[in-house]
Amino acid sequence: MNIAALVSGGVDSSVVVHLLKEQGFTPDIFYIRIGMEGEEGYIDCPAEEDIEITQWIAKKYGCRFEEVNLHKEYWDNVVSYTIETVKKGLTPNPDVMCNKLIKFGAFVDRRGKDYDRIATGHYARTVEVGGQRSEVGDIAAAAGQLRTHNSELITFLATAKDPIKDQTDFLSQLSYDQIRRLMFPVGGLMKSEVRAIAHETKLPSADRKDSQGICFLGKINYNDFIKRYLGEKEGKIVELETGKVLGTHKGYWFHTIGQRKGLYLSGGPWFVVRKDIDENVLYVSQGYDPAAAHGKEITLMGFRYLSADIWGDFETVDMKFKIRHTPEFHQGHLSRLPDGLVQIESDDPIQGIAAGQYATIYDNDAHLVVASGMIV
Hints:
By secondary structure, the protein is α/β, with parallel strands linked by helices. It has helices at 11-22, 47-60, 71-87, 94-110, 176-179, 191-200, 222-230, and strands spanning 3-6, 28-33, 65-69, 117-119, 125-129, 154-158, 182-183, 235-239, 245-249, 270-276, 281-286, 294-305, 316-322, 330-336, 342-351, 358-362, 369-375. Helices cover 22% and strands 27% of the residues.
């Protein structure tokens, strides 16, 4: 099998190469360069150190190495999306877009078409269901409810062994053509096991910290980035329950629903619970668990199955879901609304429901990723 391994220089993708070699594969290694390269005043992600480690990995395991510059594609698709989404008063998810449009989009268009599989260090798994050889093991309890043809083998995105590191929500906008070509060698391991392998094999990335935040910012503060492209505009901060003006802010685009930090108000904590885009007003509510910051109903547009329709023409169906990147799943049920919209009814109130984010829908045992949609 012809495999392309996307290696960033971090511990997870480095261990991917080791695991593939143990399985008898010699992948071609690709480092994808993205970032704010060429943008005055910005510090790029630590590309040189990453590339040096990735080249070392390639040499150690006898793999071909190639650097692919997708800076323009990243800017045109992910950075621009982030700016435009924030400008509309919505909450962007650049990690989701990067996976969909860059790692498994632009890269495949540029170089990945020649490969049978694309391997990455994401904490996720794939599972084949259907046909005469359902390979479901312990992670596809939903197999019994799959409405697929018996003769057809379908690849599903499945949750990782490590619930803390699971990244399936970041992959929830992938197409089926993308999913069926992916390999996630570390998805069946705990993070501690991945670190142990890296130490045992003396990989230079063994003790590297996990990357945090949005890569294209490098070491630049997120608000500084937003200010550069959207500027500042003073507006009021208003208490939702009383209408009292508590202070001012520098632009609604610096704030997201559920945000607590960065409001600089006394007598807190205060949470952003609503935004008036036309008037540039932030509405806030006080307390560690204010009722106004929670909701049970979440409306989705663009609802789509990732691999197969497992529920058919449902009126309502029980499932688990996430609306942000956390280890916890929420329990609820899904129902259809007019105009192609879908509604999640959560069993428990959820804090910080933010339009623009993506909801990831799982089967009722939280093993398989079934569908996703954007919160409106």
